[in-house]
From TrEMBL:
<feature type="domain" description="Pyruvate phosphate dikinase AMP/ATP-binding">
    <location>
        <begin position="65"/>
        <end position="300"/>
    </location>
</feature>
<keyword id="KW-0418">Kinase</keyword>
<dbReference type="InterPro" id="IPR036637">
    <property type="entry name" value="Phosphohistidine_dom_sf"/>
</dbReference>
<comment type="function">
    <text>Catalyzes the reversible phosphorylation of pyruvate and phosphate.</text>
</comment>
<dbReference type="InterPro" id="IPR002192">
    <property type="entry name" value="PPDK_AMP/ATP-bd"/>
</dbReference>
<dbReference type="InterPro" id="IPR023151">
    <property type="entry name" value="PEP_util_CS"/>
</dbReference>
<keyword id="KW-0547">Nucleotide-binding</keyword>
<feature type="domain" description="Pyruvate phosphate dikinase AMP/ATP-binding">
    <location>
        <begin position="318"/>
        <end position="368"/>
    </location>
</feature>
<dbReference type="InterPro" id="IPR008279">
    <property type="entry name" value="PEP-util_enz_mobile_dom"/>
</dbReference>
<dbReference type="InterPro" id="IPR015813">
    <property type="entry name" value="Pyrv/PenolPyrv_kinase-like_dom"/>
</dbReference>
<dbReference type="InterPro" id="IPR000121">
    <property type="entry name" value="PEP_util_C"/>
</dbReference>
<dbReference type="Pfam" id="PF02896">
    <property type="entry name" value="PEP-utilizers_C"/>
</dbReference>
<feature type="domain" description="Pyruvate phosphate dikinase AMP/ATP-binding">
    <location>
        <begin position="21"/>
        <end position="58"/>
    </location>
</feature>
<dbReference type="InterPro" id="IPR010121">
    <property type="entry name" value="Pyruvate_phosphate_dikinase"/>
</dbReference>
<dbReference type="Pfam" id="PF01326">
    <property type="entry name" value="PPDK_N"/>
</dbReference>
<dbReference type="Pfam" id="PF00391">
    <property type="entry name" value="PEP-utilizers"/>
</dbReference>
<dbReference type="InterPro" id="IPR013815">
    <property type="entry name" value="ATP_grasp_subdomain_1"/>
</dbReference>
Length: 886
């Protein structure tokens, strides 16, 4: 018989930390903490299998669930010495969701469950604190009505505001027992008014209502959006935790807080967190009151006046610090912790591996390895490759002038500029148009996730370092400034103001998530520093990876950036981009529009020295590292003049009439250029083009070898080959050019000739094509287009829908379609190598910088991946992780 419910508490538990799939992250870690002997309020976890069962069986529970829950509750009652629903000595519980991985803010928690008109009196008497009892009751009605019954919380907040106004009070803390009692009555009436039936007084009904709400919340829209963004499968389900309440709102010796064992923003090895005296958990994260610092040092650094927990509750703080150390040593990772202090006694409510910025992830991994807490391999596996992106992003130039509007908390590092928008839908729409926006909100909630994702940065007026905005922004790697308290944001009016200055929707601002500054206008940014922890981790990663990492770079500038990021060569240098620069385009057009071979050769002669110059520069920067140069690939029509003055320029250069050139241009028109006269088809019809390019490459190689004394081995790549014959012919053109140049210069260089595999036919015929090839480079952009038959340029209109409907798990242009396109890569690699066992294999295309695709390339036994310069570190780390996971 399946066990649906697991108990924990009193130094023991039926579950363990490694049972996250079954118990969810929260439940598994509560069990683990209980077993470790930490003070955890007793409770029970209903497994994720119940959630799966519930959705598979028309929202019905397993038969034995209720009795298992009742037995587990009886254990809690015994442990606490109180009874659920008892009017003299009531047990109160929280009902908490918890999926396998933490989904911040996605699932709603209900606190103080078990209160009704009778039990509240018992609680008041037992605690000798009626104010606390009535405050707890009104919180429960408010939360339960909102989360379970669907009565929006603003109704209740409004009632509180009205009462405070009547009494001339501005802080909740000044409301008395009688006030909360009055509010509890008003809240119940409000709920009844909204729902047409009374607020449930039966505690069992309350309990099962809350449990049902947790399971239902697995399917609400914001949870679905979060899962989609984070690739969390729908069928994982959530667990439900029912746990005895402990109270942080019992007066001035009670408190609640959240903490990290190290600074999640910088990675510094210092306790880090926030707490509130006389409050309940959700107050800290909701940003309703601004929380106080955990440590004295942090308070001083922030220039805050309210005492830190270290100062106000030194003894409990000491216990908490011991728990931090114990947990870090036990889990061997930085922990994110939730705790409550009830009348001077510490209770642990949650622990999990803490989310952190890339900078912190690096620092923590490197330091923990240095301290021997983890080994180097674990350190390499600890940093998520895609997160490195954050580190490669710009920071503000300290010397650039800045017009600071206001300051908030430095919630997630990185600097960003963009137009001010006040709502998540606008942010998303603007980003779709390619505009940069900063999402500015009073505070964010899970409904804003899509807008936060679309924005370049996030600014909030309320909320601490652990507010929703801060946590989500750090997870996404978006710069964020939170809690800019001076800022008055009026989203409806489309304006925010501070100290008499106004910023309107659409105005440009800059935020610095590292300092918390908010500036008017755009501020100059600087490129990141790649020494220190970054260099160390990369060094470790490099020692484990088997795949080489090259870059796609067309210009000397890209090439040097990529070298700094550790590229080990160029996997794809596209020669056509060079054709667009300055005056060259005129010579290129002259070549394309020439009437005959002589005319083309005339134009090519002008291009030769320019191409040679580029190659000399690139070979010099790469200093002996391999460089793969792809000969001309795109359809010629891409280079054609369009405007009248462009035709005139070319006409002047060739000495032909504009009309004549226009006629030539229209002859070159193609209906489907992506499948038209492009790639090696250009070389087949106009071999003189490839001949010129080959000549430029060899001449450049010779110049560089002679100047620097270093060996240059160019790898010449023929695009869009479908047959062995095409490659054979193009190879002959390149070889002839080589021999001519070598004879002229009396200097030979080594070189290779290979091809891109970017057509299904080429992958299938790889065995034959390999006869003519020294290397293959899988051009997965075109291979994806030609395999699936989807044009990348037109896919935007429907691909989103495909991903939403789960036809593709991900955009196949971002992460390689391993099943389909991947199979062709596997076939191409295998057949190519069966002809030539030492055939060099790589991939170029956007996929080279996508961690999952890199892992695929590792498994397929390729020699290298090639990606854009900024993705090189990501690919290096992903390659190391792939090797370590073997
Ligand atoms: P989330 O997953 O959103 O963090 P939690 O289930 O952790 O939700 O609950 C939010 C907060 O509610 C916790 O941080 C804690 O402060 C408070 N809380 C939950 N359960 C209890 C409890 N049994 N006693 C006291 N406070 C609780
Ligand atoms: Mg929590
Ligand atoms: Mg291509």
């Amino acid at each position: 018989m399946t066990k649906w419910v697991y108990s924990f508490g009193d130094g023991a538990a039926e579950g363990r930390a490694d049972m996250k799939n079954l118990l969810g992250g929260k439940g598994a870690n509560l069990a683990e903490m209980a077993s470790l002997g930490l003070p955890v309020p007793p409770g029970l976890t209903i497994t994720t299998e119940v959630c799966t069962y519930y959705y598979a069986n028309g929202q019905e529970y397993p038969d034995t669930l209720e009795s298992e829950v009742n037995q587990a509750i009886a254990k809690i009652e015994k442990s606490v010495g109180a009874k659920f629903g008892d009017k003299d000595n009531p047990l109160l519980v929280s009902v908490r969701s918890g999926a396998r991985v933490s989904m911040p803010g996605m699932m709603d928690t209900v606190l103080n469950l078990g209160l009704n008109d009778e039990t509240v009196e018992g609680l008041a008497k037992n605690s000798e604190n009626p104010r606390f009892a009535w405050d707890s009751y009104r919180r429960f009605i408010q939360m339960y009505s909102d989360v379970v019954l669907g009565v929006d919380h603003y109704h209740f907040e409004e009632l509180i505001e009205i009462l405070k106004e009547e009494k001339g009070i501005d802080l909740d803390t000044h409301l008395e027992a009688e006030d909360w009692k009055e509010l509890a009555q008003q809240f119940k009436a409000k709920t009844e008014e909204e729902l047409g039936k009374p607020f449930p007084q039966d505690v069992r009904e309350q309990l099962w209502g809350a449990i049902g709400a947790v399971f239902s919340s697995w399917q609400i829209d914001r949870a679905k959006v979060y899962r989609k963004l984070n690739n969390i499968p729908e069928d994982w389900g959530t667990a439900v935790n029912v746990q005895a309440m402990v109270f942080g709102n019992m007066g001035d010796t009670s408190a609640t807080g959240v903490a990290f064992t190290r600074d999640p923003s910088t990675g510094d090895n210092e306790y880090y967190g926030e707490y509130l005296i006389n409050a309940q958990g959700e107050d800290v994260v909701a940003g309703i009151r601004t929380p106080q610092n955990l440590t004295k040092a942090a308070r001083e650094a922030a220039g805050a006046t309210l005492p830190s927990m270290e100062e106000s509750m030194p003894e409990v703080f000491g216990e908490l610090a011991d728990v931090f150390d114990k947990l870090e040593h036990h889990y061997k990772d930085m922990q994110d912790i939730e705790f409550t202090v009830q009348r001077g006694k510490l209770w642990m409510l949650q622990t999990r591996a803490g989310k952190r910025t890339a900078k912190a992830a690096l620092k923590i991994a490197v330091e923990m390895a240095a301290d021997g807490l983890i080994d180097e391999k674990t350190a390499v596996l600890r940093v998520e490759p895609a997160a490195l992106d954050q580190l490669l992003h710009p920071t503000l130039d300290p010397d650039a002038p800045r017009d600071v509007l206001t300051r908030g908390l430095p919630a997630s590092p990185g600097a960003a500029s963009g137009e001010v928008v006040f709502d998540a839908d606008h942010a998303e729409a603007a980003a779709k148009e390619g505009r940069s926006v900063i999402l500015c909100r009073v505070e964010t909630s899970p409904e804003d996730i899509h807008g936060m994702h679309a924005a370049k940065g996030i600014l909030t007026a309320r909320g601490g370092m652990t507010s929703h905005a801060a946590v989500v922004a750090r997870g996404m790697g978006r710069p964020c400034v939170s809690g800019a308290g001076q800022l008055r944001i009026d989203g409806k009016a489309g304006v925010m103001s501070c100290a008499g200055r106004e910023v309107k929707e659409g105005d440009i601002i800059t935020i610095d998530g590292a300092s918390g500054e908010v500036m008017i206008g755009e501020v100059k940014t600087l490129q990141p520093e790649l020494a220190g922890d970054f260099a160390k981790l990369m060094e470790w990663a490099d020692s484990y990876r088997k795949l080489k990492v090259r870059t796609n770079a067309d210009t000397p500038h890209d090439t040097s950036t990529a070298r700094e990021f550790g590229a080990e060569g160029i996997g794809l240098c596209r020669t056509e981009h060079m054709f667009f620069e300055g005056e060259r385009i005129i010579a290129v057009r002259e070549m394309i529009l020439a009437d005959d071979l002589a005319g083309r050769k005339h134009a090519l002669a002008k291009l030769l020295p320019m191409q040679r110059g580029d190659f000399i520069e690139i070979f010099k920067i790469m200093r002996g590292l391999p460089v793969t140069i792809r000969l001309l690939d795109p359809p010629l029509h891409e280079f054609l003049p369009r405007e009248e003055d462009e035709f005139e320029d070319v006409a002047k250069a060739i000495g032909a009439s504009v009309d004549h050139l226009k006629r030539r241009a229209s002859e070159l028109h193609e209906f489907n250029p992506m499948l038209g006269h492009r790639g090696c088809r250009l070389g087949i019809t106009y071999p003189e083009i490839y001949e010129m390019q080959a000549r430029a490459i060899f001449e450049a190689a010779i110049v560089v070898e002679e100047e620097t004394g270093e060996t240059v081995v160019p790898e010449i790549m023929i695009p869009l080959v479908a047959t062995r014959k095409e490659l054979g012919m193009m190879r002959a053109v390149v070889e002839a050019a080589a021999e001519e140049v070598f004879a002229e210069k009396n200097h030979r260089v080594e070189y290779m000739v290979g091809t891109m595999i970017e057509l299904p036919r080429a992958a299938l015929q790889a065995g034959k094509i390999a006869v003519e090839a020294d290397f293959f480079s899988f051009g997965t952009n075109d291979l994806t287009q030609t395999t699936i038959g989807i044009s990348r340029d037109d896919a935007g209109r429907f691909l989103d829908e495909y991903v939403k409907k789960d036809i593709f798990a991900q955009d196949p242009f971002v992460s390689i379609d391993q099943e389909g396109v991947g199979e062709l890569v596997e076939i191409g690699a295998e057949r190519g190598r069966s002809t030539k066992p030492d055939l060099k294999l790589g991939i170029c295309g956007e996929h080279g910088g996508d961690p999952a695709s890199v892992e695929f390339c590792h498994r397929t036994g390729l020699d290298y991946v090639s990606c854009s310069p900024y993705r090189v570190p990501i690919a290096r780390l992903a390659a190391a992780q792939a090797a370590l996971k073997d």
